[in-house]
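URGENT: need a sanity check before tomorrow's submission.

F., can you look over the L-ascorbate oxidase homolog isoform X2 record below? I want to be sure the sequence and structure line up before it goes out.
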Amino acid sequence: MGSGLFLFALLLCLSTASLWTVRAEDPYLFFTWKVTYGTISPLGVPQQGILINGEFPGPNINSTTNNNVVVNIFNHLDEPFLIHWSGIQHRKNCWQDGLPGTTCPIPAGTNFTYHFQVKDQIGSFFYYPSTAMHRAAGGFGGLRINSRLLIPVPYADPEDDYTVLIGDWYTKSHTSHTALKQLLDSGRTLARPDGILINGKNAKGDGNLQPEKTYKYRICNVGLRTSLNFRIQNHPMKLVEMEGSHVVQNDYQSLDVHVGQCFSVLVTANQEPRDYYMVASTRFMKTIHMSKAIIRYTNGKGPASSDLPEAPMGWAWSLNQFRTFRWNLTASAARPNPQGSFRYGSINITRTIKLVNSFGNVDGKLRYAINGVSHVEPETPLKLAEYFRVPEKVFKYDAITDEGIPEGSTTITVAPNVLNATYRNFVEIIFENHEKRLQSWHLNGYSFFAVAIEPGKWSPEKRTNYNLLDAVSRHTIQVFPKSWAAILLTFDNCGMWNLRSELTENRYLGQQLYVSVLSPALSLRDEYNIPDRTLLCGVVKGMPLPKPYTI
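Structure tokens as predicted:
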């Protein structure tokens, strides 16, 4: 080979290698958010809301699997603030979870940058403020993760894709979130909500449909405490995805969406061209609140009918609907760890954790608890205390046992509630609800297999009723009154992860805990080091950084 040709070939190889290196890093999405107060009137009553870049709800994040998401948040409120990314697993990176147990709040007048990767996930999610009662004032928005182009989804591309955030809403005072916080701090409970919102509005319209086209709606319940039923007038909804998992595609006239849950549905515009209502209404309440939004055919010739589809009655209907949800085992998509495993039903359970929710009075004030312990947030985030090797200065591990508590027990201890879990153990968690109100539970950092919900009390014999083949892999599960639910998962994501009641009153007054999953090797293969410029507070402020993890 001549020297000129050899040099050309060498340069070509180097150029190709360089190009490959650039392409090997996943794309970045950058956002700058200004969090401010602003006057909003979603139910016709002016009140102080929390806006992101002047928007209520906040901006929609539209990402793709494995994207790096960088969000620089400027806190222009008059108090500390955090954003939590509900359902995002943050593999090996609980530092970005945005909860008081993992992160120091962003002080007023300062900024903080979140940097996380939506690794091996697809689906519909949302974000919201995790500090104080800020969620009651807004600051929430949609977060979608689209499948990469090389990985097909089990349905044709829709004509358009809409996020629909539904939730209960309070108008207690001009500064409603502050009033609700003061109410809870005084030991009282929240009253019933004042109304229901669809995308921050009541009785407003959004979305135009072209005849015979199919549209995707991502429906998330971002409210504080109320289960909602969602339906679209004269249009069945084909359920295709739930909290990050493709599901067997059944048609539904309506869907119960419990607090913290997200569903994706396909709707085809094949009815008489006119306006139609989408409806969200309360479930399991004597007084029914309802919100409507209009979807409009582009060639429509008439207003929406006042004859609205009715919501179902009772929680047995909702339980039966849950039993129709099945994981789509044939779809190409990111899978729960261990990657590609469908045989969760044949893995030996190494630990059973029974969690019983309760409530009672402590020093004359209402508290909610898990297994008799009501969590309180210490000044030092739990993960920081653990990482800096000073957990004993902040909390004690395993304040609760794995056996639950007897029904009717009202003894409550107020303390940080941290459960110590063994890395890569396959565990069974039982949620038992002895109360007369529905519960909704969420686990950060993971998806779990929701294998059963049944009335009554759990016992080992109930395992024969588990769905051990195609239970949906998800991150929330509801537990009906006087009922139990069972989930299965592998604790394979190191970090400090929050397990909580999605009912905001319950969570705020202690019905949550953190699961500590440590890497025995303290290795970067299992968990990332504390990021640069992490906010430090409490007992770790001013301490030297520990020796970093290595491979």
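My own read: Residues 344-518 form a domain with the Immunoglobulin-like fold (CATH 2.60.40.420). The mean pLDDT is 92. If you see anything odd, call me.
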